[in-house]
Design brief:
The chain is α/β, with parallel strands linked by helices. 33% of the residues lie in helices and 15% in strands. It has a single domain (5-216), classed as Leucine-rich repeat, LRR (right-handed beta-alpha superhelix), CATH 3.80.10. It has a 7-stranded parallel beta sheet with strand order 1-2-3-4-5-6-7.
């Protein structure tokens, strides 16, 4: 029996990365075929076409996603009033990476209300990130892993976190670009989990902040 591409995508594709110069309408067409997908990295440029945004949301909400990495500018324009907790697909996720740098500058976009979320990756910098918003996320006991992508050196970020009472064993710092995400092996999350487990197992014997790079070089 000959299997059509759409049938193959629906049965076989569970993890996918769409990146580069891909039109939003093309991405929507791809997502509509991969109905069994549980892990998605959507790294394409935002579009200002309202109908396409609505189609993207419809496609994402129809998927059984557990892991997602994307720019949320694909979904809504920069606004401190929008909450991701109102969008069905985000309420199902356990692992989320938001690649926008402006998250935590003036809003959490409702991340603290996503009680199904256990792993969260965001950009953090000491000049623009609001400590009170980071603390709001840290106060949610459902989160097990926080991966903070940083452009500054680790010592500078450690000092920023300590000065603002944001020391938490669940925080892992990474300097890498988002290319370290692999939809097939989820290495970013596994490396972060290894660090956090190591801290809890050696409580009081290791520093609270260790980067992914530091652990992998030991």
């Amino acid at each position: 029996m000959r299997i059509r591409p759409q049938q193959f995508a629906q049965r076989a594709v569970t993890s996918l990365c769409i990146e580069g110069d891909v039109q939003l309408s093309t991405a929507v067409d791809i997502l509509s075929m991969c109905r069994g997908m549980t892990s998605l990295a959507l790294w394409i440029a935002p579009s200002d076409v309202p109908n396409e945004m609505n189609l993207l949301l419809r496609s994402l909400n129809a998927l059984p996603l557990m892991t997602l990495s994307l720019s949320i500018s694909l979904i809504f324009n920069h606004s401190s009033c929008v909450s991701l907790s109102t969008i069905p697909v985000f309420r199902l996720l356990s692992h989320l990476e938001i690649i926008n740098h402006w998250i935590l500058w003036g809003s959490t976009v409702g991340l603290q209300d996503l009680d199904g979320l256990t792993h969260l990756c965001l950009h953090v910098d000491r000049q623009r990130t609001k400590p009170v918003l980071v603390k709001l996320l840290l106060n949610n006991p459902h989160f097990r892993i926080f991966v903070f992508r940083i452009s500054e050196d680790s010592a500078t970020m450690h000092k920023f976190l300590e000065q603002n009472d944001l020391v938490d064993p669940r925080i892992v710092l990474v300097h890498r670009s988002r290319s370290d995400f692999r939809a097939d092996d989820m290495s970013l999350w596994r490396n972060a989990e290894q660090i956090v487990e190591w801290r809890y197992a050696n409580q009081g014997k290791v520093p609270c902040f260790v980067t992914v790079t530091t652990l992998l070089n030991t």
